[in-house]
Amino acid sequence: LLGSAIGALLFQRGLLLIHGNAIEVNGSCLVCVGDSGAGKSTLAAAFLQHGHRLLADDVVPVDADGLATPGFPRIKLWGDAARQLGIETEGLRRIMPDMDKYNVPLGARFCNTPLPVKWVYVLEPSDQDGFDLQPFEGMARFEPLHENTYRVHFLEHMALKPQHLQQVAKLAGNIRMARIRRPREGFRINELVQFILVDIDKNA
């Protein structure tokens, strides 16, 4: 219900849906996207530990004005990531009974106010030692947003592809987008948070 079903309803209501995590930074919104296992939710949880708030986990609805709409006050974390972050999982509800993945309630760390999307970062694990950032420029901004649209195959059956192309083009023209390659090995999530915050400060 909180995934595909709500996604279909939000598409019907004319929203652009990004498959990622939305985090409040300086009164605006950072969206982190990437393939499964890229570390989106782990990064979002680390931002929470640095005093930021979460708007949405997994499904980020964006309206015609470029505002990210708050989702549900929880974040889904794998048990290993939670343990690395010092988050206690005992007593938390599992996503599925046999899965080591948990619903972590946010409480006051949830942002229930729509915020303008200003930055989109595409996370990509790599075999290199450090962090690398490559901005997307011009038309290159379009493809990452299209590729990271939530349940993009819904659009064709709903006859929403033309509207979606317009939404992606409009958002892409008003935000900073970059690919961040981070080390595949080691748990350097706090370094990644600081790396992103430095880039945000430079491109506020």
Features:
single chain; 204 residues; alpha+beta; 7-stranded mixed sheet; 3-stranded antiparallel sheet; 10 strands; 30% helix
C-alpha end-to-end distance? 36 Å
Q: Please tell me what the overall shape is.
A: globular
The SSE order reads HEEHEEEHEEEEHHHEH
| Count of discrete alpha- or pi-helical segments spanning 4 or more residues | 7
Oligomer: single chain
The total count of strands amounts to 10
Rg to the nearest angstrom?
Answer: 16 Å
Low-pLDDT windows of residues: none
Task: Name the structural class.
Answer: alpha+beta
Percent helix range: 25-40%
Mean pLDDT: 91
| Biggest sheet statistics | 7 strands, mixed
Approximately what portion of the residues adopt beta-strand conformation?
25-35%
Question: What does this 3D model show about the protein?
Answer:
- The protein is of the alpha+beta class and 204 residues long.
- It has helices at residues 4-12, 40-49, 79-84, 142-147, 154-157, 161-172, 189-202, and strands spanning 16-25, 28-34, 53-62, 67-68, 74-78, 93-94, 101-105, 115-126, 132-135, 176-183.
- The longest helix has 14 residues, at 189-202.
- The termini are far apart.
- 36% of the residues are buried.
